[in-house]
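Can anyone check this?
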Amino acid sequence: MKDPVLVFDGDCAFCSSCARWAERYLRQTLASGGWEAVAFQFADLGALDGLAGGRGEVSAERAEREVLWVTPTGRVYGGAQAVARLLMRSGGAWAYLGAVLTAAPVRPVAGLVYRWVARNRHRMPGGTAACALPNRGAARP
């Protein structure tokens, strides 16, 4: 793998819209290299997890709950920190925003905001009932 991979939930219209927005607007400012966005439903999660050491850090269950940023060296970031890494990779003013999201005083707040958005993504613009996260205790089909 040459470039980082952004893994998102392709069944969620809100997540897919966000990934398309990032591809359209963040790639225009790309200063330090490329990246690829792929829905977890079409990603080789086994290979990405193997790159990350095979510890289960990259899984369908995790990617269904939070966006993942997997680096070529096997580092995995999730949720707000994945978004921060994407922004930093994009360069320009986006990189500064991404760096702020990784700062110690901001990181916990960014995580809370990300988790709130993730829990309510079916209510966000472009979201549908299919975007709702499954109940943690519910059996998967």
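Reply from J.R.: I decoded it. The helical segments are 13-26, 45-51, 60-65, 80-90, 92-102, 107-119.
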